[in-house]
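Cont'd.
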Amino acid sequence: MIETTTAPFPTIRLRPWLGILATAAAILASWMGLVWAPTDAVQGDVYRVIYVHVPTAWLAYLAFVVVFLASVGWLWTRRPWFDALAVASAEIGVLFTGLFIVAGSIWAKPTWGVWWTWDPRLVTTAVMFCMYLGYLLLRSLSSDFERRATRAAVLGIIAVVDIPIVHLSVLWMNSVHQLPTVARIGASPALDAQMGMTLGVSVIAFTLVYFALLVERMELERRRQAQLLRSRA
Amino acid sequence: MSPLGRALLVAARELFAERANPDGLAAALTFTGMLVLLESLAFGPGRARQPDVASGVYWIAVLFAAILVSARSFDRDLEDDAIDAVIALPGGRDALYAGKVLALGAILLVVAAAAGVLSIFLLDLDIALPGQLLLVVLLGVLALPPVVVLTSVIALRVRARVAVVPILSFPMLVPQLVAASQGSAAALTGDGPAALAWAGLLGAFAFVYGVLGLTIVPAAIE
């Protein structure tokens, strides 16, 4: 038997602060990325896409790791809070994975000469995108709350295997995509200090946006769960 | 009865059911045969017998065959409510998953062997390393059931299950498809070390998804 609570989630208290912080951080990151950071000696201003591309990549990974943790939480405790966290994070993860691919494509055209190429990093990212679209499709096709949450949790746990495949694909296979610039195993980031600082602020700003969206979406899910409870009663 | 005994019992039941009414096997054999024939029409006889093209089409055919056989197996169980009876038994969920994986693996070995023989004769393929090719085919086939049964279980009583299972399976099976296609092509062209490396990846893939499936999939069986 599922104990569905209609009480607000603990994160709801943070809602206004997160929104304000995320907006301020986004404005600061935009200024740093567009004005403060120096122009790249080789690529010119085109490289500034990195301040969107890398943070969205990070958020895609983060969102799907959160889906994994929330899925384990649901199977372990059967608390609806975890299911709400999983669906909220999955939806935002799909959004940011889409942005990740689009930003990469915009960067690829002037640097590689094509919008898309059959590169391992691009293909594995597209596969990850499809995998989590499948996750959302599976959820949308199940009407019973508990069954939907359990099915989705199992898929959420299994799909996480794809994240290291995406990140390490550039090391395992011949790739035109550059090797990891920031998250390098056993080495410091290969980036100018000013660029690195701008990238760090962008990552923080995007992460705050992720958490702000997550809290809003979880509140929506809480209302849906409460409505479900009322319809059952 | 031990967990392995229960799994073998479910697998034996699956195989007997398939032998009594082999519509899953027949559909898979017909489908893979058709694909091998269509391959030479689509690519032309010259290109179709190139190792990378022949391997890629062969593994896509086996992958779809796995979906067909698994779908038929679960349809049969749902039609006669056999699945509910198996789940009701002690350890039934684990046995159901493991038994289905074993049975699907056995049926796919038959399908893969038939499709392989057909490809070799119709496309006149030269095999440089038959031992390595057999190893890649064996591990490539064994890597399929843990994922296909897993997604079939997740989508068991979902609307539009026929569409959902491939949508969920194929992204997960990308490493299997790449490794099996590349490994087979390497064995055909005589690149022994590459064939063995891809075979190792297939073995690891089967192991990881087998363990994952046995650990969490029983929780999803309704």
